């Protein structure tokens, strides 16, 4: 049993269909590769994660927690700060996050 048609017109039709299908697949591969490259460029261009975070309360003014950078409990109202600012916040009575324990990492002792 033969998989392909025996006559030239049907073979040419099949060839045309296969070429067009291959072109569509190649275009799709190129589009996916471009999206992946753009995604990777976005990841590479991200600024580094801050070492310390200050989380603000609902009013946006009062600091409620000091977090270590990357803490999963840091909320959306968190902002990256320098080490000395995190230490100063702890000294002023801002609570240390009970999950990431930035006071221990900073060497802060009440």
Description:
- The chain is α+β, with helices and mostly antiparallel strands.
- The chain has two domains: 7-46; 52-106, no CATH class.
- It is 47% helix and 15% strand.
- It contains three helices and four strands.
- It has a four-stranded mixed sheet with strand order 3-1-2-4.
- Strand 1 (52-56) and strand 2 form a beta hairpin.
- The chain is rod-shaped and about 90 Å long.
- The model has no long low-confidence stretch (mean pLDDT 92).
Question: What is the secondary structure topology, with strand pairs?
Answer:
Layout: H1 8-45, E1 52-56, E2 63-68, E3 78-81, H2 83-91, E4 95-96, H3 102-106
Parallel strand pairs: 2-4
Antiparallel strand pairs: 1-2, 1-3
What class, by secondary structure content? Answer: alpha+beta
Helix percentage range: 40-55%
What fraction of the residues are assigned to beta strands by DSSP? 15-25%
Which residues form runs of ≥5 with pLDDT under 50? Answer: none
Measured between the Cα atoms of the first and last residue, the distance is 87 Å
Overall mean pLDDT: 92
Question: How do the helices and strands follow one another from N- to C-terminus?
Answer: HEEEHEH
The oligomeric state is single chain
Q: What is the approximate shape?
A: rod-shaped
Number of domains: 2
Main beta-sheet annotation: 4 strands, mixed
Major beta sheet, strand line-up = 3-1-2-4
Counting DSSP E segments of at least 2 residues, the number of strands comes to 4
Radius of gyration: 29 Å
């Amino acid at each position: 049993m033969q998989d392909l048609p025996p006559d030239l017109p049907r073979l040419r039709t099949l060839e045309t269909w296969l070429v067009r299908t291959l072109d569509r697949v190649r275009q799709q591969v190129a589009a996916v590769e471009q999206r992946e490259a753009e995604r990777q460029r976005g990841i590479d261009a991200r600024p580094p994660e801050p070492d310390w975070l200050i989380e603000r309360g609902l009013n946006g003014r009062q600091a409620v927690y000091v977090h270590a950078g990357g803490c999963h409990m840091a909320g959306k109202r968190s902002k990256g700060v320098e080490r000395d600012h995190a230490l100063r916040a702890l000294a002023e009575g801002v609570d240390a996050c009970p999950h990431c324990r930035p006071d221990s990492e900073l060497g802060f002792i009440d």
